[in-house]
Design goal:
The chain has 251 residues and is an alpha/beta fold. Helices cover 34% and strands 28% of the residues. The chain is globular and about 45 Å long.
Length: 251
């Protein structure tokens, strides 16, 4: 049985870690370098860094900050935000990222998925998909959730897999920051539609939500932010509870 992963997420805006609800109402959550170092010490399986305003502001990801974080941690490190080319990916990998996450740029230029996968390998590439329910259908949204599209979540997920993505990071905009649990019905369907790992994002509020997303949602990894940033859940306690529920994790 494959090991399930617990992944803290650093949403970065203006060099600080922030967290909001439904992609808005952002509040400060601390220094990203300090948080990253803390999560590595606490036995997080991976760390995700998302420069959430890079695409909207049409600029590159904060490469220098990526370098600082990478020098402080010894766990796999995924970086996203503002990545538009193979060159952008190369810079981030040289600065210490193990994987990159692309979202809006992949949607606008799907060939970018093929190019990144061919240059660096699919194991380096996470495609992030932000979606929300509109008339009971999950629709992809872009630019930090600000731009809706008419494209179906599941169809886009299958395309990114076919183009060479190694993983999908699915964030439910309806669940983001609500602490009411992950979008497990959608996650379960997503995991049955594609053959690459799915990272669940949006909605973690307590330990039972993690248990549910691994058992009901069939997620391969669970990403969370505020419950870790503000000390509501410790990674050590979470992993012990997951283990008690017969969920295989790295302790």
């Amino acid at each position: 049985m494959l090991t399930k992963r617990v992944i803290p997420c650093l949403d970065i805006k203006d060099g600080r870690t922030v967290k909001g609800v439904n992609f808005i109402k952002l509040r400060d959550a601390g220094d990203p370098v300090e948080l990253a170092s803390q999560y590595a010490r606490e036995n997080a399986d991976e760390l995700v860094f998302l420069d959430i305003s890079a695409t909207e502001q049409k600029r590159k990801t904060l490469a220098e900050l990526v370098l600082k974080i990478a020098s402080e941690i010894d766990i796999p490190f995924t970086v996203g935000g503002g990545i538009r080319s193979v060159k952008d990916v190369s810079i981030l990998l040289k600065n210490g990222a193990d994987k990159v996450s692309i979202n809006s740029a992949a949607f606008k230029n799907p060939k970018l998925i093929n190019e990144v996968s061919e240059h660096f390998g699919s194991q380096c590439l996470v495609v992030a998909i932000d979606a929300k329910q509109i008339d009971n259908n999950w629709k992809v949204h872009l630019v930090g959730g600000k731009v809706p599209t008419k494209i179906d979540l599941y169809e886009w997920a299958k395309e990114v897999e076919n183009r060479g993505a190694g993983e999908i990071l699915f964030t439910s905009m309806d669940h983001d920051g609500t602490k009411n649990g992950y979008a497990n019905k959608a996650l379960s369907k997503l995991s049955s539609e594609v053959n690459i790992p799915i990272i669940a994002s949006g909605g973690a509020g307590n330990i039972s939500h993690f248990i549910d997303t691994f058992t009901i949602g069939n997620a391969d990894a669970a990403l969370a932010a505020s419950v870790f940033h503000f000390g509501e859940i410790s990674i050590a306690n979470l992993k012990q509870e997951l283990k008690k529920n017969q969920i295989v994790v790295r302790i």
